[in-house]
Amino acid sequence: MRTIDETKKQRVEQAVLELVQSNGIQGLTFGKIATQAGVSSGTPYIYFHDKEDMLSKIYVQVKEIMDAGLDEEISQGTTLQDQLFLGALHFARNMLAHPLETVYLRAIRANPQAVTPEAIKQGSARSSTMRNLYQKAIEADILVTNREDYINALLFAPFMDFMATRHAARQPVTLSELTTMINMSLAALIKHTD
């Protein structure tokens, strides 16, 4: 049995992220990955059974990176609106800090069939913090909608689309810009009593 070389495994995983950014998921092959990683063509097979297994495992790892520390950040908020803001800001910060991983998640969202249902389930389980927060906000009747999918789209889609557009144009994105967009999204999402 071959031994696991963690350095090579990390190079393979990094190559996947880089190739997904430059070429997308559809044309991704173990041969291209091996070339990009600077390893032999059989090396990816040591770590992954096939493309679906590889994409699934990397998806779960990336979700863990993006979700790390979310509970702690949200707990800093004193109101539900503050907590919603901090939850969105957490992801905005992590997306800026991990651009390859952000592109990878976007690619998986556009091609969910590329990963196993179990990987999707694991990734969704990691999103329970935000879903629980949405439920609290719905119960408190502070939102203009009680549909979680609408809440999620209104809170995240504007700044994520902004980032994707800027990324495609090779233009920088600042946390200040994303913070402004999150505040604008919250202004549309929160009921106003005046």
In terms of topology, how is this protein built?
Blueprint: H1 6-23, H2 30-37, H3 43-47, H4 51-67, H5 70-74, H6 80-97, H7 99-110, H8 117-125, H9 128-139, H10 148-168, H11 175-189
Polypeptide structure, described:
Helices cover 72% and strands 0% of the residues. The mean pLDDT is 94. Helix 4 (51-67) crosses helix 7. The longest helix has 21 residues, at 148-168. The protein is built from 11 helices and no strands.
CATH topology of the largest domain: Tetracycline Repressor, domain 2
Say how many strands there are.
Answer: 0
Mind telling me which CATH architecture of the largest domain this is? Orthogonal Bundle
The number of domains is 2
Can you describe this structure in just a few lines?
This protein is mainly alpha-helical and 194 residues long. The chain is 72% helix and 0% strand.
Features:
Tetracycline Repressor, domain 2, 11 helices, single chain, 2 domains, elongated, Arc Repressor Mutant, subunit A, 194 residues, mainly alpha, 72% helix
